[in-house]
Amino acid sequence: MKWWQIGSRNADLERELRSDLELEEEEQRERGFSAEEARYAARRAFGNPTVIREQTHEAWGRAGIERLCQDIRYAFRQLARSPGFSVVAVLMLALGIGATTAIFTLVYDVMLRPLPFAQPGRLVTIEEKVAEWSNIYPTLPVSANHFTFWQQHNRSFDSMALMRQGSVPLGASGRPLKVGVLSATPGIFSVLQVQPLLGRPFSASEAQQGNDHVVVLLFDLWREQFGGDPEIVGKTIRLNGFPSTVVGVMPPSFHMPSVETLATIGDRNRVLPIEALEPLAFSKERLAEEMGDLNYFGLARLKPGVSVAAATADLNALQHTIGVNLPVDERATLSVALTPFQELLVGNNRRPLMILLAAVAVLLLVGCANVTNLLLARAAGQRQKMAVAAALGARRAELVRMALRETAALAAVGGGLGILLAAGIVPSMQQYLPPALDFRGSLHLDWAGAGCAVLLAVIATLLAGAAPALMVSRTAPHEVLHSESRLASESRGSRSLRRVLVGVEVAVSVALVLMTSLLTASLAKLMRVERGFTTERTMTATIDLPTESYPDDQRRTAFYKQVLDRMDRLPGAEHAAMTSVLPLTGDGWGDLARVQGDTRPFTQLPLESFRSVSPEYFSTIHLELLAGKVFSPSDWGKNLALVSEKTAKALWPGKDPVGQQFSRGDPATEKPFTVVGVLANARTISLSKPDPMMIYVPYWYRCEPEAGLLLRTRQDPSEMGDAIRQAIWSVDRNVPVPTVRALGNVVADSVANQRFVMDLLLLFAGSALFLAGLGIYGVVTYSVVQRYREIGLRIALGAQRVSVYRLVLRDGLFPVAIGASAGVALAFGAARVVISLLFQVSPYDPVLTVGAVCTLLAVGTTACLLPARRAASVEPMQALRTE
Fold it and tell me: Can you list the alpha helix ranges (DSSP code H) found in 606-689?
């Protein structure tokens, strides 16, 4: 059956079936039955109308399947006759669909997929706001005292929890494992609405200081470190040096995102995934502090039907009550900020992710434009076949279907390969994800990603096949069938469309190249910014001391003193130092500074960032000393401090800060610090902005269980990793030592988010440049073929080869120049999107703009040269003889 016979055949079939029913009714009436009895007998003898319709629809279905199978066979047979065209088109579509699907999977996983908890839309994070400190800290972590008051009096939450993330040693002796632990109040299980797979959650009584230690293991830690022991509940393990009873194991589906707070001390670029949950216990003294330390991450579950705005108003009323009841010298204007949990996790990554998604969509658009150009050239060669079909009575819809079937086959194969490509890309992206985006666990291509790939294949079919299909559907049979040569030129409309497509490719490629150039230049300037410290030949390591073995400052400082002494004796060692927070791994201890004679309430005192460091810290990283001296081991036990230049000017304007004194709290009870030196300002918290006011105190004043070690060497620092570990283990083999890294790598990791976005954009921009060059080459080559006889005639009439080059280059570069101008306008229009991601780079930078345009012009010129060379080598007589 031919395609144009299917519709009429279906109608004939239905008419035949109904005629048979009417004939049966007439025969029944001739036998003496009434009309109603005859109708009933006919239905029983032949079949009722429902059966007729079902048989008709079944016939239609068989015809449709037959037609679909014919189209598929024909499409693949035609593509097999042009393997070069087919392979190029399929690879273009596979690249675009695969890359877009991979980035969509990442964006969906981070921004759109609901968190794996019951009713995740009701989960909100809680942060406190102190109006007097808002210029430095817009939001702050939560006070334990305030949290207890909210729990008792709020009307908006089903449950609330405080938590703090850290890392502790797991194991008894001999190089224990370092694991990420979430210390949380018992309400965490109600907030997340989860229950252990084995055992039970810890109780409120177990979250009291002085009680035995208990722990709930996450599934992966239980399986990998304890062999999935089904009898693990009730057994004792050593966690943070303490014997801890395992009371539960979480199910494999449970994954807790990182919940670091501003008060978390440690390397934020090497955050360990949470592998265990333990109770967070507060001392009576801590709970009695009316203001208290703002140290904890707050998470709560809203009651059904309660909005974020209503809950915020509820807690703000409680905050007002807390504020007015504070002592006069601690009076503060308190409020809260509630944020949906997922929104907080996405944070500032929303815009970079959307830029990546837009960039990869541009890559797919360039690929579709190229395929469209290839199909337009192919359609021009198939006009005679379509003209014959139209002359035989084919309707326009049938012509469009015939034209789209090859495109659909290309998109189907390209989509299938794209899914395979995305399935390989997505898991491999995991190791390159910056920590801020890696809060869901393992990435993999799922049904959402596969559905995206199928949708993209459909869109690619419509985008790439619409123009060729429209062109062939408008084929005039008499014009085509009377054309005198197979080399007859394509229509003006088709040629114009091909040029427009090249212009679109160039425009979006220029915009993508310019955006990538801006981010690359921004990152380069960020890495070259004056940091105030050096990284050459310096290694770092982070240490977590077991709290059970090192419960106080005295034991911790003794440990670090021994480690530093042994590191100083290592061959090639120049300086060894410790610090509470390694450079560019986050902020740490923030506190107030009250100079002598300052009687203002504490909320009006300046906030300072404090660092506990050993005397050699400044020599190790070459932090410049501007005035005074550095404290030394002979000053052991004294309250001395060094301040940054910014701090000195803020606390003692117009005075010499050396010799001045300040205290952290009440001068009547707090022993004051004496300033012995002034240091240059630096960027040890973030490369993008100078440090806030900074104060450095000796490590013997305050020594936390977690700290960073630095070693500057005279030799290749990469050879010192094992020596540093052995120096630490020679003091205590029960102290876990994570990866030892060069300080330069720590600096590089501090811009991991920007580097991840830039690397992907570089990849997309390079691919877009290649595809744009391929598209320009294809269009110019086809144009040369179409004008083969014209060029031969020009040469026969005396045209020079140089003029032929000029003709081809002018014809090929005209849409490139127009597209480049449009691309610059497009990039400038999108400047507001990228300006927040740039560092000391204008989105309208003229040098980068000219560079992006010149890059595309160079690619376009290169793509035109080969066809131009072919045109210039045309033999006139051979061209004029060609039919």
Answer: 617-620, 645-651
